Amino acid sequence: MSVARTAWLEALLSGLDPAHDLLVAGLGANARYLPHMNVQVPYFALCDSMGAAIPLALGMALAKPERRLTALEGDGSLMMCLNCLVTVGAARPANLTALVFENGAYESSGGQNVPPVSVDFVAVARASGWAHAERLERSDDLLAALERGRRASGPCLLALPTIYDPTEPVPSYSERPDEIRANFARALTRGKA
Amino acid sequence: MAEREIGPREGARRIVGALESAGVTLVPSVPDTWIGWLMEPMRRSSRLRVLDVAREEEAIAIACGAHLVGARAAVVIQNAGLLNSGAVIGSLVQLYRVPCFLLVSYRGDARDPIYYHAAKGRATEPTLRAWGLRFARAQGPSRIATQIAEAYAEIDTTQEPSVLLFSAEDLA
Lengths: 193, 172
Description:
The structure holds two protein chains of two kinds.
Chain A: H1 5-14, E1 21-25, H2 29-33, E2 43-45, H3 53-63, E3 68-74, H4 75-79, H5 84-91, E4 96-102, E5 105-106, E6 112-113, H6 121-127, E7 132-135, H7 142-151, E8 156-161, H8 177-192
Parallel strand pairs in A: 1-2, 1-3, 3-4, 4-8, 7-8
Antiparallel strand pairs in A: 5-6
Chain B: H1 10-21, E1 26-29, H2 33-44, E2 49-52, H3 56-68, E3 74-78, H4 79-84, H5 86-93, E4 101-105, H6 118-131, E5 134-137, H7 144-158, E6 162-166, H8 168-171
Parallel strand pairs in B: 1-2, 3-4, 4-6, 5-6
Helix pairs in contact in B: 1-2, 1-7, 3-5
């Protein structure tokens, strides 16, 4: 069963801790929604760089082991950099979670289908050495799943079946790259204070 | 084709020392033969974490992530992988102005004895120019540490990425 993207995002945001959490959002709907939501933690929402969210978050996770990194990535975007699951599995950061929003579509570019194969990202993550991976069906289960992931002491991947609705009024990108970077740096500094 | 081993690898040790002195803590890397020679002393460093990466675009994004939270990284990849990485350079490094340092094994230049690297050797410098990336060729083991220090000083000043192309003889 698929869930509305905003329901996943609201569940995620309700459980974040400003003292610990950092978010990286891959390009597309997640990155476009976040500036319009009540996000209490530093976030870096990409407006390009398809496939880079998980590697970018991995760099942050390794450099800031005291922080918890959550990367929001789409299924099409992850297919573009599926090898990053292997890299993360080898690095085994205990502070990295990847949320994979599966809607079967390249939503940002007009809703074209991703390659028509039902990829089991949970199985790929497990086979690549991730400590915890599971597929969820209800947004109410997200926070508990995140907690299970943290207890696994290694990287965690959660697959989130997501409704694709071509009529959904996803906001436009509202921040320029310089602003995205500056806002992230400012929020990080605030978190230190 | 087997490659002839280089000498005492003093250049490789100097690279490690230069990265340590520059405050680098993370080295995401995809290997080739020359990088393998460089990584032996690199992995012995207590100050550098070598991160084995599956593909070069990832290595660059990982370095960008480290930089964005205040750490310093050095990407070590072959020029074949650099040539793969146009999208992440254009859409992450340059779009967000993340000043990463790339240490790139320069296969296929005039010093490379292996014939099948020639095509990517010919493409490397024109591609870097087309991308607008600042780059230099390493000038041998005696100069390479200085060149790395200069690259990081330039990065700090310009907030732009920098590429240093090295050959096997720079590691000797």
